[in-house]
Amino acid sequence: MSKIIAVAGKGGTGKTTAAALIIRSLLRRGKTPLLAVDADPNANLADSLGIKIEESIGSVLSDFLRDRAALPPGITKQAFLEMKLHQILKEGKDIDMLAMGVPEGPGCYCAANAMLRDYFDSLSKNYPYIVVDNEAGMEHFSRKTAGRIDILIFCSNYSLKGLKTVKILSDMVDELKIAVGAKYLLVNRTPEALEQEFLDRVRDMGMPLLGYTVMDREIEESEIKAVPLMHLPGSSATVQRFEEMVGRILT
Ligand SMILES: Nc1ncnc2c1ncn2[C@@H]1O[C@H](COP(=O)(O)OP(=O)(O)O)[C@@H](O)[C@H]1O
Ligand SMILES: [Mg+2]
Questions:
Q1: CA 143 to chain centre
Q2: Contact 12 CB / ligand 1 (< 6 Å)
Q3: Share of the chain above pLDDT 90, in %
């Protein structure tokens, strides 16, 4: 069965960076083929991975609703949608990728979403690891696009406010009764050493601290120069932090 690793958190807390560097570490460990899912409509996981994505699931679902009548004869809706979804799966050497996007235009997406869940279920069997970069609003959680998550990593900035937001998101996930194997906290863009008070609040929260990444000039530069994070040198301090964190979640 595949292991689903999902990254969640408010916008700008380092989710996409984390997803990309987790994927990088999984690839280095030979955990392939790997499925990367960009569930953030402000999609940029593809850029961080250096992958070009032309079409998203959102547009396929919208087209599907609009062209319903044009369903070819002798094919079920489910089979037709699966065929369309399969066409937009971006297949690479080690990484395949899907972007969720957002459905365009009005319509009831309930049936389409149910079919999407079935498609994910069958697709996931092909991959030992699936990494999902979630959107800040967590709509896909409430639509339960993924039936279960093995490892859910909440990103926060280095602030007590950030920790409170993580707590709210984590409670939301509990209320939705999504099956989650383990939850972790990841704090990004911190100073070299974390204040004891901050660590005390983390301990009070009761969510294990997977790790933290220090404010890193190389990451900032990659972003500004639009260089995929896959091209960072292996010696990068942040790359190494993720190596260590991935090592821990895999054990
Ligand atoms: N450890 C870090 N050091 C420096 N900049 C970082 C670090 N982690 C993330 N960033 C930068 O912070 C910004 C937000 O990160 P991003 O991963 O895009 O967040 P999100 O996906 O949660 O919106 C990006 O410009 C990214 O390059
Ligand atoms: Mg992002």
A1: 15
A2: yes
A3: 68
pLDDT at residue 22 greater than cutoff 80: yes
**Domain residue extents for the chain:** 3-250
Class of domain 3-250: alpha beta
Residue 128: is the preceding peptide bond cis (ω within 30°)?
Answer: no
Cα–Cα distances (Å) from 159 to 22, 36, 155, 190, in that order, read: 23, 29, 11, 9
pLDDT tens digits, one per residue of 56-67: 988 888 888 777
Q: Which ligand is nearest to the CA of 216?
A: 1
With a 6 Å cutoff on the Cβ, whether 135 touches ligand 1 is no
CA distance 179 to 16: 23
Top pLDDT among 154 and 145 is at 154
User: Is the distance from the beta carbon of residue 17 to the nearest atom of ligand 1 less than 6 Å?
Assistant: yes
Q: Which residue has tokens 């970069």?
A: 133
For 19, phi then psi, to 5°, come to -60, -45
